[in-house]
Every structure is written in structure tokens, then in C-alpha cells.
Description:
The protein is an alpha/beta fold. The protein has 2 domains: 17-220, Glutaredoxin, CATH 3.40.30; 223-258. The chain is built from 7 helices and 13 strands. Strand 8 (152-154) and strand 9 (157-159) form a beta hairpin. The chain starts with 36 loop residues before the first strand and ends with a helix.
Amino acid sequence: MVVTGVSIAMAIEQPTKELEPVNLEPHLGQQVTLVSSFVTSTGQAVTVADLFLAGKPLLVIPAYYTCPRLCGLVLTGVAEALSKVGLEVGTDYKVITVSFNPKDTPEKAKRTAEKYRAMYSGKGDPTAGWEFLVGTQENIDSLMGELGFRYIEDKKEYAHTAAFMILTPDGRISQYFPGVQFPERDVRLALVEASEGTIGSFIDQALLFCFRFDPTKGRYTMVAFNVVRAGGGVTLVLLGGLMLILWRREARKKRGVV
């Protein structure tokens, strides 16, 4: 499925036929290759597997560090949303930004990291919890292909869509968030859902029972049937409590206790 429409921002003003391959093609549930190698902003060689916290989800942002406009909007939107989700970066989840320009260097990644980590004002330490990576063309193509992130070089820049993805702790694609602005409630729920129960609260789990993620809209929408079921369950609990109170009151009367 190819995601199109107003929810997808593109890094070109007037797409031509040559740029038609630029799109976001969701591969929900696909396993990402975890042995692909990249280099961090500090020059450390890592594999994708190294970047996961044990049992926790991974948020992946495709963006190149010399992008004149769109990538900056995506990174700003992510920093703002994550600042409000109420989860701790580097503990509850981890974030990686992966450049799809093989000419980007660790030095460029470091400058970009400093800028956008400074925008983060939520829980946790973004220095430890948000990595900025560069890689070879081969490894970039492999990862972006698995993510369904389609882009092409266009006059020394890149034509591309705007989105980030959330992976489960074992590296399967759980959700896509297209665009440049991301509702913090939906991002939190997606991280909780991808974590498979390792993060989040009882309220998060209750919301996930009544809401399902719509990948074409990049947000959670209400599931009417589950809401009715949840409402029915609450009603039964309340009725059961009322019946227990009345039964105890009647028992007291029979024993002559007021």
C-alpha cells in the first residue's frame, strides 16, 4: 500500500513524472535486518541490533543532515511530540535518526544531533537516548527499502517523503507516522503498543482497547465495538457492586442490625 494525500509532505514543490517513485509504502509487521552497520555521531560503529534497549521499542527517523527544509521540520516535530509523551527517552524507548545520504559524515550528524537534542524537553537524557547515524549506500538502501521509505537524488538534494516509524523490541515495523506534526497522545500509544506491555500505564492499555491505529491517517481512531464492550463491562461492574451493597443491607436487616 502506498500512502498518498495531504498527510504526506514531500521535499519538492512540483513533482514530475521522474519523481513518482518517491513515496511511503508501509510494510507493517516486516522484520528489519538487525545486522546492518552504521556509524554514530561520535564515530562508533554499530549495528541496528545494538541500538535497541532490551525489551523496548525503537523510533526510526529517516532524514539527511544537509536537507534544506523538510527533514528539519520532521526532526522538530518529533522533538516536540516526544517532549510531551510522558515517557523517558533512553529508558522506555530509544530514537535513531538515519541519514539516507551516504555523503553525510559523523561530524554532520554531530551538529544535527546537538541542534535537535537541545529541542527535547521531556523525560530522560536525549544524548543517550537519541542517536544520529550515517552509513554506506548499501546499508542505507537495505534499511530504507525494508522501511518502505522511497526517495531519489534530485539536483544534489533528495526528493523524499516525511515520516517516522516505530519498531517492536524484536525489530518488526509496528506503526508509521507520516507528516511533520505528530499528536503526542498517538505517539505515546504507539510506543506503548509496540513495547508489547513493557512500558505505559493501565490507562494506556485501556485506551489501546478502545482505539486502533490507522496507518493511512497516522493516528489512533476509536473502535466503536470495543467502546461498547468496555462500556458494557463497566456497567456490569457497577451493577455487581450495587447488588452486593443491597444484599449486605438486606442481610443486616434480617439479623436485626441497622
